[in-house]
Specification:
223 residues; alpha/beta; six-stranded mixed beta sheet; five-stranded mixed beta sheet; 6 helices; 11 strands; binds 1-O-pyrophosphono-5-O-phosphono-alpha-D-ribofuranose; binds zinc ion; binds magnesium ion; ATP binding; nucleotide-binding; ATP-binding; EC 2.4.2.17
Length: 223
């Protein structure tokens, strides 16, 4: 067992730059080789594992890595998915971070008349977040069909695959460009730092204890 602390971060996407910037601001130095999955810190016994954001919750919950920087949207979807399949879904939330803000929303084509939530009844809704969408539909007594897509959700209505979509919105540019209008916000998200729920070695725990106040300091300075 290595005593290097492993942290999973998103390889490329909305959280990548700010995840690395946060670690850098905390004094954790490393250089990224784009072709490599793992980046070794040159200042601390820390390894960064650069993966798809969707893989981060599982890697942390299964103890493959010690820490993960991930969006709450991806985290909650993975947690619900594990609960649905009777798999242990435990982790320790360490810090909510001040980046990666977005919302998971239901949007419909501009030309569709939409008065209220009840209009979703009978619709096919395309999403990459089936668990979060199903929970929302159930909580609100809506009978809709969930169409699971791993990407290009915003083109599903035009392609005739769905009547509405449920996807992440940050600036709204993607919806706008695809003739869609945001109607219901079902989940609000930001980045989170999470830890595996097992007890770590003293060395690793000491490193986390040193890292957390630095993160707090960086976040405080941003305010
Ligand atoms: C999300 C979403 C939209 C886009 C919305 O994808 O799927 O494509 O961001 O952002 P906007 O409102 O600013 O246009 P993203 O690439 O962040 O996530 P993913 O890579 O996990 O699909
Ligand atoms: Zn993703
Ligand atoms: Mg996308």
């Amino acid at each position: 067992m290595t005593n290097r602390l492993t942290i999973a971060i998103q390889k490329s996407g909305r959280l990548s730059k700010e995840s690395m910037a946060l670690l850098n601001a905390c004094g954790v130095k490393f250089s990224i080789n784009e072709a490599r999955l793992i980046a070794h810190s040159t200042s601390h016994p820390i390894d960064l594992l650069r993966v798809r954001d969707d893989d981060i919750p599982g890697l942390v919950m299964d103890g493959v890595v010690d820490l993960g920087l991930v969006g709450e949207n991806v985290l909650e979807e993975a947690r619900l998915e594990r609960i649905a399949s009777d798999t242990a879904a435990v982790f320790q939330p360490l810090r909510a971070l001040e980046f990666g803000q977005c919302r998971l929303s239901i949007a419909v084509p501009r030309e569709l008349s939409y008065q209220s939530q009840a209009d979703l009844d009978g619709m096919r809704i395309a999403t990459t977040y089936p668990q979060l969408l199903k929970r929302y539909l159930k909580d609100n007594g809506i009978n809709a069909r969930v169409v699971m897509l791993t990407g290009s959700v915003e083109v599903a209505p035009r392609a005739g695959l769905a009547d509405a979509i449920c996807d992440l919105v940050s600036t709204g540019a993607t919806l706008e460009a695809n003739g869609l209008v945001e109607k219901e916000v079902i989940f609000r998200s930001q980045a989170q730092l999470i830890q595996n729920s097992e007890t770590l070695s003293d060395e690793k725990q000491a490193m986390i204890d040193q890292l957390l106040p630095r993160i707090d300091g960086v976040q405080m300075a941003k305010e």
